[in-house]
Design a protein that fits this description.
The chain is an alpha/beta fold and 170 residues long. 47% of the residues lie in helices and 15% in strands.
Length: 170
């Protein structure tokens, strides 16, 4: 893995961004950051109350992620950040000033991901919010050449292996 890379592990809540991102970071000897930890309390409170975030709510959060990722990659590190990055404009915002960025899109169907969300305890994102995430999701298009798409149903080790192989090609 080249030094100074920022990898955003993206997808809807429950797709496994944190688990797979941490496993990928361990495999690549990279720094992992869970983007959920960077949400301001006001965003967490909204989501916990079942209120979907707006673009305005996400703006500062995305800027923080971009800035932290940029700083880490500029220092020559490989930085992996779990972040939903649901819309193209969010991904474009993260791309600003981050020339060494790529995205890993964890793709899965609603039924599979809903089961995962229902099984989680003590997380601010609840099942009733998952529908809004799927409605908001803009699946990356072929012109987003810095996006690797992998299915989220496989075992974590298999996904990490697939992502690692695909990272060498972009």
């Amino acid at each position: 893995m080249e030094k100074g890379k920022l990898i955003i592990v993206m997808g809807v809540s429950g797709s496994g961004k944190s688990v797979k991102g941490e496993a990928l970071a361990k495999q690549l000897n990279a720094h992992f950051i869970d983007g959920d930890d960077l949400h301001p309390q006001s965003n967490i409170d909204k989501m916990a109350a079942g209120i979907p975030l707006t673009d305005e709510d996400r703006y500062g959060w995305l800027k923080s992620i971009a800035k932290i990722g940029h700083k880490d990659s500029e220092n020559g590190n490989v930085c992996i950040i779990a972040c939903s990055a649901l819309k193209r404009k969010y991904r474009d915002m993260l791309r600003e000033d981050n020339p060494n960025i790529c995205f890993v899109f964890l793709s899965g169907d609603y039924k599979l991901i809903a089961k995962r969300v229902e099984a989680r305890a003590h997380h601010f994102m609840h099942l009733d919010m998952l529908k809004s995430q799927f409605e908001t999701l803009e699946v990356p298009t072929p012109d987003e050449t810095d996006v690797i798409t992998v299915g989220t149903a496989a075992q974590v080790a298999e996904i990490v292996k697939e992502v690692e192989a695909k990272l060498l090609k972009i």
